[in-house]
Amino acid sequence: MDDLLPTQASNREGLRRGDFLKQAAAAGVGMTAAGAVLSAERAGAVDIHFPPGETPTPDKGLRAHINRFSHLVINVSDLERAREFYEATFPVTVTARTNGPPQPYRSLGIKRGQFDGYMLNEASDFPSRAIHIVEWKSPRPFGTPYVEANHNGWYRTAALTPDIQARHAQVIAAGSTPYGPPSPIPVGPAGATATAFGFPDPDGSTLEWIEVPGPERLSHQNANCRDLRKSFPFYQRVVGLDHSARPFSPEPFDQTLGSLGRAIRNPDGTIYEGLVDFDAPFFSYRADSRNPIDLLQWEIPGVFGRPYPKPNHLGIIRLAFEVDDIQAAFHELRKVWKRVAGPPEEWDMGDFGTRKVVIFEDPDGIMLELIERPPYGIETNPVTQT
Q1: Residue 138 lies in a domain
Q2: Tally of structural domains, the chain
Q3: Residue of 245, 278, 277, 250 lying closest to 190 (CA atoms)
Q4: Distances from the Cα of 313 to the Cαs of 2, 141, 208, 346, in angstroms?
Q5: pLDDT band at 59, cuts 50/70/90?
Q6: pTM, whole model, 2 decimals?
Q7: pLDDT tens digits for 324-354?
Q8: Which of 2, 98, 256, 327 is disulfide-compatible with 352, CB 3.0–4.6 A?
């Protein structure tokens, strides 16, 4: 089956949508309307361990266990500086403090460590997922966030605004230098575009504003993948997300549009200055489409680099999903996926409380997290009957 599908090297050294759909259809591969590979044979080929011949259903993987997107973890070098910047340039405010004592973080490969952080969320009655800014005290944060817009890993997180020019001026006033002016980026057929611009936080992690009518709020988080044929079925089958949209560029376009980053590199590390092209399925969780994962494969010039090697590297480091019963979720995850750091471990997060956590990776090694929600008040303070 695999040898009938287009290879990574074919057709402009990328996975072109039109030819991919035609060749996959000719090969008899099961497809969604958007053209995602869904056959059980493909699932086995990408290390998703459903029993041979069994078609995955919603009761397999994490779909029945995840409540919502919880938070996106961004490592920073100066917590108070980062808090001030995010509150000045993004539609978020501090909602909680994470300031636990020194302790083991075995699933992160840290024998004994400590971090200080803030949960930042929208000032709304029904906030979506949070941004968790974290300053590691021990071991100290290191490195530089991804410079390249096509770097493999969590690259940027976006917010929506009805007034992008005002947000552009606000970012400059806060001391950041946007990668360019707000500009239209192609997102579909018939000339569909979205006006956007990216900018770095004080450490260099990339944030993005996109102009959309309506209230300001957090939007998607972008992960650059190496091969959608592997990553698509992982997020759909193992994590249990829904394929909710598919922004793409109909034709190669000027890489400065959308002001997405400082640079684009070829896979060999050399600077690329030509036209670019991408395919970007969005994955949401059930009916909540506010914070989808923008799973983007750069078709031209391809993806560069590898995800951050250590959990205290500066940058956008992982995305967390909330679950009710983490032991049950871990048990189900291990049935179908091998890249799991270990059984649930308990983290004392100080003012935020104690949480049970599981760390795992996607097919590229991009870090993900399960975090167990705290018990509701009625569970911890039952009414005494007389």
Answers
A1: yes
A2: 2
A3: 250
A4: 36, 6, 21, 22
A5: low
A6: 0.85
A7: 999 999 999 999 999 999 999 999 999 999 9
A8: 98
